[in-house]
Specification:
Elements (H helix, E strand, L loop, with lengths): L7 E8 L3 H15 L5 E8 L6 H11 L3 E5 L6 H11 L4 E4 L11 H9 L4 E5 L7 H19 L11 E4 L16 H7 L4 E5 L15 H19 L3 H29 L9 H32 L24
Parallel strand pairs: 1-2, 1-4, 2-3, 5-7
Antiparallel strand pairs: 4-6, 5-6
Length: about 325
């Protein structure tokens, strides 16, 4: 992919009650974009702010038609705000940016250079992160290692908002909960070429972070959901059937142990709860198996009712492209 193949860049910025920071950010972007070599648009998403954010953004958009503003009815969260921006972005490369001034817009060309070299997704790495260690840096470090281990996608900093995506790798990806941080994983599992690069990270000047330690357990739960969707979304019977098999094996072993105690140790079965536990494990295994069958039917209905495909095509030669194929022209 050559540099000229990047036709337009969409810089997307979700914001929630960042009015003070936005004043400075708009000045920074204005200075940075004066010498920007690509066609661009800047999409701000006001995620239900209650301060002066929207009025500031509206005024800026009136002075610069390349600035677009989307105002959500209420605070839906960062994932929903990013999804709204992605849905309305017209660029073939999308670059998210935080509104709190901690990301440096001057790093954007570095990310775009790697996109030009053929990568589909470039993730920023805040190697020298300017945040508190106890409640921000250490939990983030642990979460990053856990995410990399579970997903197989080795990145140092999943939490860095500054990234660059080719828009086609985001096609069909929906964001819920805190799943926006897992976009590199979703893209990689769909065949995208992913890399990372060191970026600057500045101390927060205004306000306070909206995230703390409570976010960590949400990230872990979302990671479990993402792993399930990746490995078992088209075959959930394997997931539930695996647990059903384990439960059945436990039940069988408990019954054998009960009979052994009865026959060789002469211990009455009513003096031990082993048979009760065995019966419970049998019931659990049957329930898990039935849940797996139901989940399999639901997923088949999901794909077939919407005529969705269980695959994605990167390129084709002498083949008429269907609506489900991502065109790279």
């Amino acid at each position: 992919m050559s540099t000229s193949s990047i036709k337009k860049v969409s810089i997307i910025i979700p914001s929630y009650n960042e009015g003070t920071s936005l004043k400075v950010l708009l000045d920074e972007l204005s200075y940075f974009l004066k010498d920007f070599q690509y066609r661009y648009e800047v999409i701000f998403v006001d995620d239900g702010s209650t301060d002066s954010s929207f009025s500031l953004l509206k005024e800026a958009s009136l002075n610069n038609l390349n600035i677009k503003v989307i105002r959500l009815r209420r605070n839906y969260g960062q994932s929903a705000a990013l999804l709204a921006a992605i849905d309305y972005a017209s660029g073939d490369v999308i670059v998210p940016l935080d509104a709190d001034l901690q990301n440096d817009p001057n790093d954007i060309p570095k990310l775009l250079n790697l996109i030009s070299e053929g990568y589909d997704l470039v993730s920023g790495w805040r190697k020298h992160r300017q945040d508190r260690a106890l409640d921000r840096k250490i939990p983030s470090m642990i979460a990053n290692k856990l995410i990399s281990w579970v997903s197989g996608v080795k990145l140092h900093d999943y939490g860095c908002s500054l990234k660059a995506y080719r828009k086609d790798v985001l096609q069909g990806i929906r964001l819920y909960g805190e799943l926006h941080r897992f976009l590199p994983i979703c893209a990689s599992w769909n065949g995208a070429r992913v890399t990372e690069i060191e970026v600057n990270h500045k101390p927060r000047l205004f306000g306070k972070s909206k995230y703390g330690l409570s976010r960590t357990y949400k990230v872990i739960l979302d990671l479990i959901v993402l792993k399930f969707l990746s490995d078992y979304s088209t075959k959930p019977i394997y997931f539930f059937g695996g647990f059903a098999s384990v439960s059945f094996v436990f039940s069988f072993l408990l019954m054998m142990w009960s009979f052994y105690l009865k026959l060789f140790k002469h211990i009455d079965l009513d003096r031990t709860p082993l048979l009760i536990f065995a019966a419970v494990f049998i019931i659990v295994s049957v329930q898990l198996l039935l849940m797996g069958i139901l989940a399999d039917l639901v997923m088949r209905t999901y794909f077939e009712s919407q005529d969705k495909k269980t695959y994605q095509i990167r390129d084709s030669v002498n083949v008429e492209m269907s609506p489900y194929v991502v065109s790279r022209n």
